[in-house]
Amino acid sequence: MLVLSRKRGEAIRIHEDIVVTVIQLGRGRVQLGIQAPANVAVNREEIHQRLQRIQTESKSNSEDSVVPC
């Protein structure tokens, strides 16, 4: 894992088209602004995990419903 220190208003760039900017710091929290192309999904980790679980369950259920010939 790469660990970077940034101050408020500073940013990091990921590849050519994703920019993460520190918006605000305080009270044990950090607010980030993320600029990314519309075709790039940007989710909080817990949302990403939930979507992955739903996708896995959906795939499992569709495989269960297939009847072998």
Q: Number of helical runs? A: 1
Helix content: 25-40%
Low-confidence stretches: none
Strand order across the biggest sheet? 1-2-3
Question: Gyration radius, to the nearest Å?
Answer: 19 Å
Q: Summed up, what is this model?
A:
With 69 residues, the chain is of the alpha+beta class. 29% of the residues lie in helices and 29% in strands.
What's the arrangement of secondary structure elements?
Layout: E1 11-14, E2 18-26, E3 29-35, H1 45-64
Antiparallel strand pairs: 1-2, 2-3
Characterise the protein shown here.
The protein has 69 residues and is an alpha+beta fold. It is 29% helix and 29% strand. The chain has one helix at residues 45-64; strands spanning 11-14, 18-26, 29-35. It has a three-stranded antiparallel β-sheet, with no helix packed on it. The model has no long low-confidence stretch (mean pLDDT 92).
Question: Which terms summarize this structure?
Answer:
about 70 residues, alpha+beta, 3 strands, about 30% strand, elongated
